[in-house]
Structures are given as structure tokens and as C-alpha cells.
Amino acid sequence: MTDTLLSKSTEEEILLSKSNWWKTACLNAVLRGGTNFTAPQTVYIALYTSNPTDADTGQEVSGGGYERRVVTFGAPVIADRRATTSSTTDVYFPIATADWGLVTHIGIRTAATGGNLLYHGAVTNPRTVQTNDSLRFMAGRINIDEG
């Protein structure tokens, strides 16, 4: 079994951008009279073989034992007029039972299946996940910057 790391050093931090759905939900909730919005209790990392884009149009990995994984983030930190947060624990994906392809992007989603895309970004060093590979994102390497 190979332990494939998508982000194993400071140079490989993954910075995420907001999706169109999340931008709209934020503006509606804050600026349009509190339009109903229920925050997800849990968020999940999804793996993609193409850019999910702000419009949520990418190709998510499927089959071969793949499933989204829960990710937790720390309290936001404000510095230089920017709010940032980072993942707080390592996130492990199940061992691939078939090839998943070249993982080029990740997304943060509101549900284990379906749901809405919140954030997305490219991995610095894309990895081809093959049968019997294991994939891990190390704590502190998935970052959200609201600047």
C-alpha cells in the first residue's frame, strides 16, 4: 500500500476559493433581510479530476471505494484585514479499490453525497491514485482566506 500525500509541506498548502452558491448564500443571508440559510453541521472534502469551478461543474472521483471525508477547521484568525482558517486534523481517504485517476482539485461540500460546493481549489502537486493507494491531507494544509 502506498501512502500518497497531496499536501505534505508548507509549499503545498491548498488555498480555496468560494463557489457561486456560497457567495450568493452569504450575500442573501447578510444583506437581504436574513434570507434563510442553515449552516452545515459537518463539511466534507471531495476529490476532483477536473476543476470544480465556482459553478460546481468539475468531475468528482467516483467508484473504487471513494467517499468524501469529514474535515474540520479551526477558529478564524484575523490579521492584516484578512480572516483565515485551516484544517485542524489529518484527513484520510479509504484505500482505493480501483484507480481514481489524477486528482487535481478538491472541494469542500455540505454533505457526504450531493449537497452544495462551498469552496474549491487546485492541489499543488496532483497525484494519480491507483488501486491500493491511500490518500491523506495533513492538518493545517487546507486553508481558507476571506480577504
Tell me about this structure:
With 147 residues, the chain is mainly beta. It has one domain. It contains one helix and eleven strands, in the order ββαβββββββββ. An eight-stranded mixed beta sheet has the order 4-3-8-9-2-11-6-5. A three-stranded mixed beta sheet has the order 1-10-7, with no helix packed on it. A hairpin with a 2-residue loop joins β5 and β6. The protein starts with a strand and ends with a strand. The N terminus is likely disordered.
What's the alpha carbon Rg, rounded to whole Å? 15 Å
Quaternary structure of the protein: single chain
The strand order across the widest sheet is 4-3-8-9-2-11-6-5
Tally of individual domains: 1
- Overall geometric form: globular
Number of strands: 11
Helix content: under 10%
Summarize model confidence as the mean pLDDT.
Answer: 88
* Count of helical regions: 1
Q: What is this structure, in a nutshell?
A:
This protein is mostly beta strands. It has one domain (2-146).
List the helices and strands and how they pair.
Layout (H helix, E strand, L loop, with lengths): L1 E6 L6 E5 L1 H12 L11 E6 L20 E3 L5 E3 L2 E5 L4 E2 L8 E9 L7 E13 L3 E5 L4 E5 L1
Parallel strand pairs: 1-10, 2-11
Antiparallel strand pairs: 2-9, 3-4, 3-8, 5-6, 6-11, 7-10, 8-9
